[in-house]
Amino acid sequence: MATTGATVRPTLAVVGATGAVGTVMLQILSQHADIWGEIRLIASPRSAGRKLAVRGEQIEVVALSEEAFDGVDVAMFDVPDEVSAQWAPVAAAKGVVVVDNSGAFRMDPEVPLVVPEVNPHKVRWRPRGIIANPNCTTLSMIVAVGALHAEFGLRELVVSSYQAVSGAGRAGVDTLRQQLALVAGTELGTKPGDVRRAVGDNTGPFPEPVALNVVPWAGSLREDGWSSEEMKVRDETRKILGQPGLPVAVTCVRVPVVTTHSLTVHARFQGEVTVDKAREILATAPGVVLFDNPAAGEFPTPADVVGTDPTWVGRLRRALDDPTALELFVCGDNLRKGAALNTAQIAELVARDLG
Fold first, then answer.
1. Which residues are tagged catalytic?
2. Over the stretch 45-79, which tens digit does the pLDDT of each residue have?
3. How many CB atoms neighbour CB 81 within 10 A?
4. Is the pTM of this model over 0.90?
């Protein structure tokens, strides 16, 4: 740990510092309270030697290696699953507490899956030295759902997501921009195949054109027609809330939005609920903004929420035929709370624990 006067501050490593989420992580480090001593930036060998700005300083990126973790207390990983699977245990074996943003360890029974507003106590239980960060889609709703669950007791969840293309990485963003350029100024959408003919083979990471379209698919194929993204939302929600048998039904949809995931949520609880009580809970819940006045045209949209940290909630109402259920619409920036911010918040909890 680094020493400043009488204060010993932990050393932080950011692994994957040059990626899309890594870039946001560095912004957040500059915006949050300065609790870290040295900040070490780690990336692939091809990025080694680059200098990136953090807290007003230019820090040189070093190549990912075992030696790069010497003297590190906490490491935030934002790298592909296979890289995390290989290197997170290496760092943990050197005594580093790893906060991993990949999917490599989320469902490992010996790795806690943490959302600081929902289950912060879990950071102290880390038998493998690794803490997992949930998927961006789960994170876009779980802070609000978790607050309601703490009061009412969640019994069932039915969710549809409207996911931004940045959830598929830089390739997703580049694909949408290229497709928009191909269809700009054309008369499209009146005949079958118009958009596909304009886009051609330029579908990038998506199975269908996403410009001027919605694609009811995100992830890879799993059993019985479910997608991997849908299974993540179900399994992660169960683990975070500590409800392994919770009924969760999910449909994931990709939409032509660059950043910020949205979800419709139908949540059933143990007993009767009221909108007034739900409003009170959400209005005071950490990490939640209640923005809900449809008569005035006020409800969250990705255009409102992008670049912000909280989960935004609107369209709150009780289910028409079920006094135990609520309907709501949520939006969350998938690169901030959905990835970088939650990772940084977990790391900050660990740093306080180490102190």
1. 136, 261
2. 999 999 999 988 999 999 999 999 999 999 999 99
3. 13
4. yes
